[in-house]
Each structure stands twice: as structure tokens, then as C-alpha cells.
Amino acid sequence: MRVFNLKFNKESNGCWYIDLPCWPFAHHNLMMVAGADLLCEYVSEVQRSPGHCEVRVTVKDNRLDGRAPDICLRRTEKGYGATYKIIGAPVEQCWLCPVTLFVLGRYPNKINIYLERNS
Fold first, then answer.
1. Cβ atoms of residues 21 and 5 within 8 Å
2. H/E element holding 112?
3. Which of 17, 67, 78, 102 has a CA 20 to 30 Å removed from the CA of 24?
4. What pTM, to 2 d.p., does this model score?
5. To which H or E segment does residue 4 belong?
6. What is the mean pLDDT of the chain?
């Protein structure tokens, strides 16, 4: 099972971006929008790490280290990007842009998110 370790940062402009040093295109493409930004904000609050969050992601039904996912995204629509229903967070849905293809290789039907909680 492949595990993706992803980091997100809220920059000085108040917008959330995925941290992808190897991204070969314009930085603005990495901006979290349409609910993904709200999900980042929620995760940073849970992790008590304002402006920063780190998650572990799987795209299979397997549990990671025997744990159930903290948040689950289920794809509801696909086109240019994909829309996901969010389970386990106070955000109803989010849209993920084509950067998802660069990171995960596809628009999975299900994305499992595991949080690392800071004390």
C-alpha cells in the first residue's frame, strides 16, 4: 500500500497551498480552493499548528497501521478536477484540481486521510 505524506501551508496572502518542491509549473496552481482550503484550516486547528498541516494519505480501503482514517473523501463527480464528499470533518465537500493527478496519479474514488496530532 502506498502512503503519501503531504504538507500544506497557509501563506502570507491568507491562502493555503500544498508544499510540492518538485512542482514544475506556476505556484498559484498549488492553491487549495473550493473546500480544500477549509479542510486544511480544520486540520491545522485539530493539529494545533496554525497555518500548517501534515497528513498521511492512502487511496485504498486498507487501514494504515491498524487505524481507521480520521477523514475520508469519497468522489462524487469527475471532470476537470474532481469533487469529493467529506466524512469526518465539518466541511461538506471539496474540489480537487488536476494537481491531484501529479500527486496521486489519478482521481481516486476514495481518499483516506490520517492526522498526526500535536500535543
1. no
2. strand 110-115
3. 78
4. 0.84
5. strand 4-10
6. 88
